[in-house]
Design goal:
It holds the Pfam family CheR_N. Methylation of the membrane-bound methyl-accepting chemotaxis proteins (MCP) to form gamma-glutamyl methyl ester residues in MCP. It comes from Natronospira elongata. This protein is an alpha/beta fold and about 280 residues long. The protein folds into 2 domains: about 15-75, Orthogonal Bundle (Chemotaxis Receptor Methyltransferase Cher, domain 1), CATH 1.10.155; about 90-280, Rossmann fold, CATH 3.40.50.150. The protein has helices at about 15-25, 35-50, 55-65, 65-75, 90-105, 125-135, 155-160, 175-180, 195-200, 235-245, and strands at about 110-115, 145-150, 165, 180-185, 190-195, 200-205, 220-225, 245-255, 270, 275-280. The strands form 2 sheets. It has a 7-stranded mixed beta sheet. α2 crosses α4 and α5 packs across α6. The protein is globular.
Length: about 280
């Protein structure tokens, strides 16, 4: 049995494999064998925070069904790298093609619904909200609803607060900054907060994509970018099929730049760069 050297805690192969299984079963993240040091670094912080003396004690706690700690583990292992208007071509398509089509199609209820799945700290859904707010200025009587979800409860609380360092808005125009964001003063100098008009459009909720979804409504589009890349094939298929079930006719799915539906499902048509439309 191998153990890591020069580390505070012993970390056996068996312990690593058990943690890999727990993480995959909990959130669908399939960790390669080369992620051992990453797992050690993130989980050892939890071992230390709980005042435990070993990974064995930590695993014993998880085996006893400590759901609060399981959520902490998920939070620790979830990668949250994002920014405003990341992969800008998606927002160009949203403004120039998708929203005009929706206005033509939704003459009855006049509500456009978008799901940001794997929303991380909120930059994606708030970017969507900016584009929708600008577009709907010219279409009075229309409403936008954005449902933003993530498996990481801590990052969702941060997203709901909507406070960001100024440098994270480097791709946001001055006009948009003035209209949609509040600049911090005093102790909050160098920070901005998303304005009320955007925060009212976005609803945040914790959702684990590989567990059953309690969703009754359909969506015109789903943004799930740079999320399924971490799943194994079975979970990828499960998630994108689930999105198809919850998309309205001709609904759109936006994926990340390294993601593809090739070989996973035939329920979508590729219509742009990592932009798919549900086949009806």
């Amino acid at each position: 049995m191998k153990q890591s050297s020069a580390k505070q805690y012993a970390f056996s192969d068996a312990e690593y494999e058990e943690l890999r299984r727990i993480i995959e079963q909990s959130v669908g993240i399939a960790l390669a064998s080369g992620k051992r040091d990453l797992v050690y670094g993130r989980v050892s912080r939890r071992v230390r925070a709980l005042g435990l003396s070993s990974f064995a004690e930590y695993l014993a706690r998880l085996r006893k069904g400590d759901q609060a700690e399981l959520e902490e583990l998920v939070n620790a292992m979830t990668t949250n790298v994002t920014q405003f208007f990341r992969e800008s071509h998606h927002f160009d398509y949203l403004r120039e093609t998708f929203l005009p089509e929706m206005v033509q199609r939704h003459q009855r209820d006049r509500v456009i619904r978008i799901w940001s799945a794997g929303c991380s700290s909120g930059e994606e859904p708030y970017s969507i909200a900016v584009v929708m707010a600008e577009f709907l200025d010219a279409h009075p009587g229309w409403r936008a609803e954005i449902w933003a979800t993530d498996v990481d409860g801590a990052i969702l609380r941060q997203a709901e607060e909507g406070v960001y360092p100024m440098e994270s808005l480097k791709d946001v125009s001055q006009e948009r900054l003035r209209r949609f964001f509040l600049r911090g003063k005093g102790v909050n100098e160098g920070k901005v907060r998303v304005g009320k008009s955007l925060r009212e459009i976005v609803q945040f909720q914790r959702v684990n994509l590989i567990q059953p979804w309690r969703i009754r409504q359909s969506f015109d589009a789903v943004f799930c970018r740079n999320v399924i890349i971490y799943f194994d094939r079975a979970h990828k298929k499960q998630v994108v099929e689930g999105f198809a079930d919850h998309l309205a006719p001709k609904g759109h799915l936006f994926l990340g730049h390294s993601e593809s539906l090739h070989g996973l499902t035939d329920r979508y048509q590729l219509i742009g760069k990592t932009i798919y439309r549900r086949r009806d």
